[in-house]
Amino acid sequence: LDLSNCSLRSVPLGLAEATAAIVLDLTENPLATLPNGSFLGFIHLQSLAVPLTLECPGGSDAWQNVTVDRSSRLCQGQRNPCNSSVELAWPCPENSVCAPDGPGLIQCLCDNPFHGYRCLREGTFPMLLFSGILSTATVSLSLLLWSTQRRKAKTL
């Protein structure tokens, strides 16, 4: 994806849809910063060229090779932060596993059969119980409103 020399002052909002990009060129743009979540989901990104004034997203530890020339910085070979020897700042909770989510970014995915907040719930969502309670409440409220409003309709 070549976005070089496009007069970009900030990362375009549509870039979030290009998570399948492998090569991205942002050189020759007057970019001031790269916001923290700019490359969220870019797990396939292997080569990123940014203006010299900017650092590689995730820092140099997120990339295997960072080279600098006269006008740009080339970040190559995105590293998997889950396999690094550096301890993660926020380790994944019990019953979950670390997965990469872009340069220097991670996500914690629940192991089967766990789900929910911090992967603490085991099994599947109780859909039958939830649907039964919701249906009963809806029918009861509808009957109550119909019976109370019916008297007003007869007087009109």
Can you characterise this structure?
The chain is α+β, with helices and mostly antiparallel strands and 156 residues long. Helix content is 19%, strand content 22%. The protein has one helix at 127-155; strands spanning 23-25, 47-51, 63-68, 72-78, 96-100, 106-110, 114-115, 121-122. A four-stranded mixed beta sheet has the order 1-2-4-3, with no helix packed on it. The N and C termini lie far apart (68 Å). The chain crosses the membrane at residues 125-146. This is ARAID factor.
In round numbers, the mean pLDDT is 90
What is the rounded distance between the termini?
68 Å
User: Globular, elongated, flat, extended or rod-shaped: what is the shape?
Assistant: elongated
Q: Give me the strand/helix succession.
A: EEEEEEEEH
Low-confidence stretches: none
Q: Specify the structural class.
A: alpha+beta
Count the strands? 8
SS element count, helices: 1
Q: Can you give the helix content as a percent range?
A: 10-25%
Keywords: Disulfide bond, EGF-like domain, Membrane, Transmembrane, Transmembrane helix
InterPro entries: ATRAID, EGF, LRR_dom_sf
Disulfide bonds: 110-119
Protein name: ARAID factor
